[in-house]
Amino acid sequence: MADLKSLKPSNRRLIQLYAALLYNAHVKGFISGKIYTGPLKNVCVPGLNCYSCPGAVGACPLGALQNALASVHTRAPYYIFGILMLFGLIFGRTICGFLCPVGLIQELLHKIPTPKLKKSRLTHVLSYIKYLLLAVFVVSIPLYYAARGVAMPAFCKYICPAGTLEGAVGLLSNPVNEEHLSLLNGLFTGKFVIMVGLATLSVFIYRVFCRFLCPLGAIYGLFSRVSLLGVTVDTGRCTHCGLCKAACPVDIRSIGDHECIQCGACRNVCPEKAIDWKRISRHES
User: Fold this and answer.
1) What separation in angstroms does the CA of 253 have from each of 72, 104, 118, 241, 271?
2) What are the per-10-residue average pLDDT scores of the chain (285 residues)?
């Protein structure tokens, strides 16, 4: 019989679950089929969570960034730049490891028993695609269309699987929105294929969207070295055994770098106890 303790969710998993529930606390929206549009919707949550989800109580920072860039010709995007810097400086990619509902969904899918693709030099190279998507779909295309007076949140419109699942599917699955089904077109079909494809790949590849495609993770990765929260290595204790990198499920080159999602898995395998959370003092026994 399995050890009951081993079946309990970890503290990180509980935080992920609580964050997802908190982001989508507008329960009435799931019943009414309408999105919340109150004052809280002007505030960005840290993780990727679609504005159009019927339960969403806040805005998605990635969507807010694209909308801000789309209107940059009329007003400066001080708020979204400021909030992204604040999130980045405090949390870094701890947001990815603890506070992102999309990351939670992928991790749960990955638990389905199947052969898994191990990280390699190829997956490390693929991890840079998200920086290309950030530059092209989140920044360049919205700015290009903004210069022509057109709003174009390209990543949300053409790619984002969170928007497809939480926004489109979340709303259209409610019978009160049945009349909108006739409006679906090839654009939705393409995004739906992307969502299903990523969900399927998540079963075989750990956090495939986060590692290879998520522009928000790319932004937070820029703050990994300077963020207040996250993991850090005591270089005086470290023996460079490599066990931490081997245990890491993502494509890091070193603990706490821009690819590290700060999940803390490395702490459990370090024989020298050289890895700990930032700003937390160790208490020797």
Assistant:
1) 36, 23, 15, 14, 19
2) 57 96 97 95 96 97 95 86 97 97 98 96 97 98 93 96 95 90 88 97 98 98 95 94 95 95 94 87 41
Q: Give the whole-angstrom CA distance, residue 35 versus residue 141.
A: 27
Q: Which residue has the tokens 């930032």?
A: 278
Nearest C-alpha neighbor of 278 from the set 267, 270, 269: 267
Sign of CA dihedral 45, 154, 29, 105: negative
Burial of residue 115 (CB within 10 Å: 0-12, 13-18, 19+) is exposed
Is residue 2 within 8 A of residue 32, CB to CB? The reply is no
What is the set of domains in the chain, with CATH numbers?
A: 10-221 (no CATH), 230-277 (3.30.70.20)
